[in-house]
Amino acid sequence: MIAFSAPTPKLLSQILATMLAAALAYRTTTLGTVRVCSRRPHERLSADDLRLLVDLARQVSITLHAAQLSDALQKAREQLVLAREEERRRMRRNLHDGLGPTLAALRLQLGAARRTVRENPSEAERLLDELRSDVRDATAEIRRLVYDLRPPMLDEFGLVGALRNLQLTDTHLVRMMEAPEPLPPLPAAVEVAIYRIAAEALHNIVGHAGADRCAIQLDVAENAISLSVSDNGCGLPPTYLAGIGHRSMQERAAELGGSVNVLPVPGGGACVRATFPIQAVRDD
Known about the structure:
This protein is an alpha+beta fold. The chain folds into three domains: 11-72, no CATH class; 79-149, Single alpha-helices involved in coiled-coils or other helix-helix interfaces; 155-282, Heat Shock Protein 90. Helices cover 56% and strands 18% of the residues. The protein is built from seven helices and seven strands; from the N terminus they run αββαααβαββαββα. A five-stranded mixed β-sheet has the order 3-4-5-7-6. Strands 1-2 form a two-stranded antiparallel sheet. It starts with 8 loop residues before the first helix and ends with a helix.
C-alpha cells in the first residue's frame, strides 16, 4: 500500500504561486475555469505548455457547450412530451365526459322517437324537439373542442383578420390595428400563440383597465416578430403581481422561445408586448 501525505503549507503556497487559470468560454458565454500548475515548485510553464493549455481550454469549452445543449434539448423534449400528453388527456376527458354521454343520449332519444312515432305522434314530436336541442348542444361542444385546437378564424381570415375580428364583451372599446402588409408566412404555432396572447390581453383590458381605446400592433424585424397590445386605461397598480392570465401568456411565449412583458404606457395605460425570435418562424 502506498501512503500519500498532504502537501505542506509552504509547498501549497509554492504551487498556488505558479498556478495559471484559463477561462472556458464559448463565444460570449463563460462556462468555467481550468487551473493548472507545473510539475515542480518554482518551475514556470513553457510557451509550448501555454499553447497546449489554450488549445485544451478551447476544446473543453466546446465539449461543455455541447453537453449543455444536449441537456437543454433533453429537457425541452421532456417538456414537449409532457405538454402533449397533458393535452391528449384533456381532450380525452372532454370527449369522454362531455361529448360521449351526449351522443349516447341522442341514440336513446332516436330509439324512443322511432318507437312512438306511429302510436303517439305528439310524444314523438316532443322527443324530436328535445333531440334537435341536444344536437345543437353537441355541435356547439364540437366547435369548442375544435376552437381549443386552433381558432377557426385564423384559417378563415388569417392572423391579421383574426385579430381584427376578436370578439369583445365591451363594444364601446375602440380598437386600432396595425400590421405590415403583407405579413410574412408564420408557423401555425406562432400564429396561435399571438392570437391567444392578444385575446387574453384584450380580455384584461375590458375587465380591469377601464380604457376606451386600445391598439394592436404587429412588428416584423430581422430577428424577431412582436405583438403589442396597449390601452389608455388606468395603468398598472404599484403592487402589480402577475396573475393567471399573465402567466398563461408567458408560458405560451416561452414554449416558442419568446417572452412577454407588461409595461406601463407614458401618460397612462399599459402595454402587453410579446416577442418571438425569428428563428422560431423560420425553422417551424
